[in-house]
Amino acid sequence: MKNFSYRNATQIHFGQGQIAKLRDEIPADARVLIAYGGGSIKRNGVLAQVHAALEGITSFEFAGIEPNPHFETLMDAVALTRREKITFILAVGGGSVIDGAKFIAAAAVYRNDPWEIIQTYGAKVTQALPLGSVLTLAATGSEMNNGSVITRAATQDKLFFHSDHVYPKFSILDPSTTYSLPARQTGNGVVDSFVHVVEQYVTYPVNAKVQDRFAEGLLLNLLEDGPKALAKPEDYAVRANLMWTATMALNGLLSTGVPADWATHMIGQEITGLYGLDHAQTLAIVQPAVWMHTREAKKAKLLQYAERVWDLVDGDDDTRITTAIEKTRQFFEAMGVKTRLSDYGLDAAVIPAVVAKLEQHGHVRLGEHANITPADAASILALAL
Ligand code: NZQ
Ligand code: ZN
């Protein structure tokens, strides 16, 4: 196991009825910006619960944070935040809203052009307004991490920043808020969580037993409960297990002391930036292809994954690996997320465009060995057609 330092600063309130805890978490004299998306929280009653909990506290609303949140939209929220002297940002929604809130929190008190936050991957962020979240979609882990992914629509750049200043002070995870998710978003969430785990697990062995067995446990949860959530969207136990699994998949714990890959995310991000596919759709396309391309370098962990997650113990190494990759693809498809570029009307013409964006962003040495070059990315995408 490698050396590591680990701390996670987010307080979690998990369970039904926990939205009422907002009252204890937000100072009575705060000026709160409630940031949200396209309105799902109005239709499913979550916004009404938030207002009830915040009764008597001064609050403002900023609606319209889109999936894959746009820098341009968020800058309107930054202007409102400055104008109204907001002191607390409350994100109510999925990963896009929480990521957007993190950007607003950092940008509102940033001295230079806030795009610099993204260009420097958050390295220059020295402060941020406090923020909290009410999560309504189990997927990204943004509710308990320090990352944020932002898109500049004008230039089709989808990039990210990290800063410990944007850890949510608290996040409220009420699984019943996810009953109203469309099947597409439930499926996306399961696939995103799954890929978060394997990006930190299917690399090379460093004898990190806690991390490995924890990763395998999270993957088994997703295999077991993902399909159940599609079949029975209002099963509380299923939604609860999926929600906590998704949070645990990307709150920093799994990546302690182990190498991490992230090539699938980096390539997938460019596909979303250019063509607007959902985040999880890009992962379902790229992940199996990355494994086909890197199966030699990842051999030991792919065999461990095949055995411990898919019970594959018979046959030679190559067959077990191929079967594990195919089973992974079938699982994504069973969650309603297609796994080929052609399923989304894309063809080989996208390959040079994605590669050019990777080069433009300097993302030219990807993966746990930092050896996936733009030429490799082209080969990976060719395997995903
Ligand atoms: O906008 P509203 O109306 O709320 O509708 C949303 C949106 O259309 C809807 N939705 C959310 N909760 C709902 C609901 N509909 C009904 N009932 C509910 N309870 O779902 C749609 C998608 O929402 P979005 O927030 O975009 O989804 P997700 O949580 O998958 O977030 C995706 C974004 O997170 C980034 C992705 O790149 C993408 O931009 N990621 C953030 C990460 C992080 N911060 O650590 C890591 C991830 O790898 C990921 O990159
Ligand atoms: Zn992701």
Automatic annotation (TrEMBL):
CDD domains: BDH (cd08187). Residues 189-358 form the Fe-containing alcohol dehydrogenase-like C-terminal domain. Gene3D superfamilies: 3.40.50.1970, Dehydroquinate synthase-like - alpha domain. The keyword Oxidoreductase applies. The keyword DNA damage does not apply. InterPro entries: ADH_Fe/GldA (IPR001670), ADH_Fe_C (IPR056798), ADH_Fe_CS (IPR018211), BDH-like (IPR044731). PANTHER family: ALCOHOL DEHYDROGENASE YQHD (PTHR43633). Belongs to the iron-containing alcohol dehydrogenase family. This is NADH-dependent alcohol dehydrogenase. It comes from Rhodoferax saidenbachensis.
